[in-house]
Amino acid sequence: DTEVTQTPKHLVMGMTNKKSLKCEQHMGHRAMYWYKQKAKKPPELMFVYSYEKLSINESVPSRFSPECPNSSLLNLHLHALQPEDSALYLCASSQVLAGGGIQETQYFGPGTRLLVL
Amino acid sequence: AQKVTQAQTEISVVEKEDVTLDCVYETRDTTYYLFWYKQPPSGELVFLIRRNSFDEQNEISGRYSWNFQKSTSSFNFTITASQVVDSAVYFCALSGGYGQNFVFGPGTRLSVLP
Question: Residues of B near A (CB-CB distance < 8 A)?
């Protein structure tokens, strides 16, 4: 059983909608991540939070807005998305021992499949 | 810049065959970490192994084994006696030692036929 949960599993939204993706982990990890994965491609890192602070933003457009309300929760707020933003959005978490966590083992949630119409 | 290459895009084998998935990496960091993840059709990435750059010992876990060779910048993954449940996309990944980069390779799609 995964200890990283993501809701919703599927999301369909129009280009003018505002929606949020949610991620929760119960492993006591202090780093959390958002990835975007297009079909037949590897996941691409979007954001990293370490100790609830944004530590990496991989030049993601501002229509994606991350939020880390506490050490267990990670949100991704979506606004004015484009059809090309349709993808699988994966959340992950890891320990933070050194270097912000990104070299530690990341544990992934099942993802949210997003379709933008 | 860091880079991971998985030259095999797709591999098909018959059940019980052994199969090796190749991973070649590039980094200028002296400390780095290598990973293998499995992504079955359900979509969730499953962690398989993490190896740091100072540990070149090969690892065996059941039917899985890994061969890490710094001299050739490779971290290959072998599945012995493959099973249908091994069918998935396998990603090799690399993280620098200073917490600034994490990159996945393009993945290898493995199909194990009954």
Answer: 32-33, 35, 37, 42-47, 50, 91, 95-107
